[in-house]
Amino acid sequence: MARIERVETQLFRVPLDEVLSDAKHGDHTHFELITVQIQTSDGLKGTGYTYTGGFGGHAIKAMLEHDLAPALLGADAAPVEDIHDALQWRVHYVGRGGIASFAISAIDIALWDLRGKREGAPLWRMAGGRSARARCYRGGIDLGFDLDKLVDTVRGWVGGGYEAVKIKVGRPELPDDLARATAVRDVLGGARAFMVDANYGLDVAGAISAAQAFAPLQLTWFEEPIEPDDFAGYGAIADATGMPLAMGENLHTLHEFRHALAHSKLTFMQPDSGNCGGVTTFLRVAKLCAEAGIEVCSHGMQELNVSLVGAQPNAGWVEVHSFPIDRYTTRPLVRDGLHAIAPDTPGTGVAFDWHALAPFAR
Q1: pLDDT at 95
Q2: Domain limits at 202?
Q3: CATH code of 64's domain
Q4: Which residue is catalytic, options 84, 168, 321, 339?
Q5: How far apart, in whole angstroms, are the C-alpha atoms of residue 325 and residue 322?
């Protein structure tokens, strides 16, 4: 039995190269990275992490240090799913979802990293083993870009080999969104996949109008047109327009995913292992999606989520996010045309460049 002997947490506030904007979160100037390292009695160390768009990192770190880490010390690290469930119940009364799910995600990922290192298995095999490859797209946080900059950015992604692209929509006037999306479709041509994301900036009526306007652009999906808690509203948009809908990055408990699958008539689900409860919840959501006949995709953390998405029989798409995490890991995401390729090393395959992160420690 390998018992947990030490739990270390760190918070980094990493600046972005430029201000990135979307419809509801506003301007991003930094992202926060919160890491957890768990050491066991057999000498192994597992690394987990979560992230934010710039706010809440101190609260996540505090919950890890004060409420969750003490419950881990001395425990057997092997029953990862049992630990996950116990931590959920430990803080359920004060923190179901939200900060608690971010903190539990970081611990859960570290424990899966330990499991893989102990068993000599890469995450994609432990997560289902269907494939080490998954379709990927480049996601932009570009609502603040003018049209020329948006088009130039997308041209750069295409020149870099991306076969699928997502941009932000949700500007005050629909014709502006439509003009921008049309210009991007022209750059992509008809063969490449194209998605748009409103970051829940619209109401149901506005989303229906937008979906109808976007129809000629042959979108792969319209992401988060309305607030994520309006599960029935998504169903109404799907019924009115037939537009493929995607969401999930703002769902932080398994119950929320169940509600979405029951009522929202989604074509794609997008759990983020960094905020839904880690690998354990991601895999449970993927199973629910398979039973519902829809594809499971991912949001953010492409360096980890590529292993989770590709491993599923109902594999969807991996988002390659705008936050430049590749600068701070020892294995930047590997791509081959349309596909991203998961690490084949034991554990999650995600290792941080601590020297590069050091200047941003908080």
Answers
A1: 87
A2: 124-341
A3: 3.30.390.10
A4: 168
A5: 9
